Amino acid sequence: MKKFLTVLVLVLVAASVLVAAPKKKGKAGMIGLAMPETHVERWQKDGAALLADATAKGYKAEVAYGDADQGKQNQQIQDFLTKGAKLLVIGSVNEGVVSAVADAARDGAIVIAYDRLITGSKDYDYYITFDNYKVGQFQGKAIEAALNLAAATKAAPKKIALFAGSPTDNNAKVFFDGAIDVLRPYVEKGSLVIVGPAPLKSSDAAFTKITTENWRADIAKARMENLLNNDAKKVVLDAILAPNDTLARAIIEACASDAKYAKKLPVVTGQDGEVASIAAIRDGKQNMTVFKDTRKLAAATIELADALLKGQTPSIAGARLDTTSYDTGKKKVKAYLLEPVIVNKDNYKAVMIDSGYYKESDIK
């Protein structure tokens, strides 16, 4: 009997240890990845890279594309929250996302604004992007160098037309301000003449006249054709400030149909390093692009997400933390900024092919 009691005590003690032992924890919660659209090539790459990196870290993750429809994206965000998402990475369509961000905050989900600052919200703390002001500076400096503006004169000025991105995307303002800050001194002294609407900062009323709704190529092409038939009909444009590659190619297509540009196209800028624009740069049709390596941005974003979900202080390799410059209009958020890279005919192989981002056979 004594032996039986001893064995029984040992069994009960072992059972209590098993009950008390903490369960091995997996990754906490799901990550929802809300991307704005697919008609701009880079967003497809962003979504795929974010999903792959989140999955590689052991998280359950889903990606959805909003088709440039904020109502649709808000519903996708609600679906993520219903599925128990603990963190959302949102590349917003426009400021209408604010209500969905508020819902996420109510549910205790962390929100990271991805590449587009979410304005008008007080309900999130983190933003991750590239240094977009520098992107604009690269575009402005490319025009400055290609036109040799330092040698231009008021008597024989260079001529430029200005395009900007979507009026609902805060980045469009940042890109433009970076570029125009380089070009403004030449405009002010008369050695660079703007043909068509001529804002000298994004806060000017005329800025809305150069924006391109939802970054749509057809809208940019139609506006370029209108310029060629009106304000730019009797002049030869030396350059066109185009904010991204999708719009750059549409603008180039419009110019190519004008006999004045049969032998020489204007200098046209771009951004995103889209494969069709790399081919256009190689062939001398587009002057440059700015490469923002979505692989690095996605990896940095998931590193940030992982740290936040673990309750750790983020330390993101290759990203600069800026706590003062990015204001939603309701609060300043912590911004992690990666470095963009200028790409032109001289270095496109080293930057775009040798890095493994594209294969040479991709550039047709």
Structure description:
By secondary structure, this protein is of the alpha/beta class. The protein has two domains: 30-124 and 293-338, Response regulator (Rossmann fold); 132-291, Rossmann fold (3-Layer(aba) Sandwich), CATH 3.40.50.2300. 40% of the residues lie in helices and 16% in strands. The strands form three sheets. A seven-stranded mixed sheet has the order 2-1-3-4-5-12-11, sandwiched between helices. Strands 7-6-8-9 form a four-stranded parallel sheet, sandwiched between helices. Helix 4 (98-106) links the parallel strand 3 and strand 4 (110-114). The chain is globular, with a radius of gyration of 25 Å. The model is unreliable at 1-26 (pLDDT under 50).
Please give a handful of descriptors for the protein shown:
2 domains, globular, 13 strands, Rossmann fold, 11 helices, seven-stranded mixed sheet, 364 residues, alpha/beta, 40% helix
Structural category is: alpha/beta
Order of helices and strands: HEHEHEHEEHEHEHEHEHEHEEEH
Q: Quaternary status of these chains?
A: single chain
Instruction: Report how far apart the termini are.
Output: 87 Å
Q: Please tally the β strands and state the result.
A: 13
Q: Would you identify the CATH architecture of the largest domain? A: 3-Layer(aba) Sandwich
Give the gist of this structure.
By secondary structure, this protein is of the alpha/beta class.
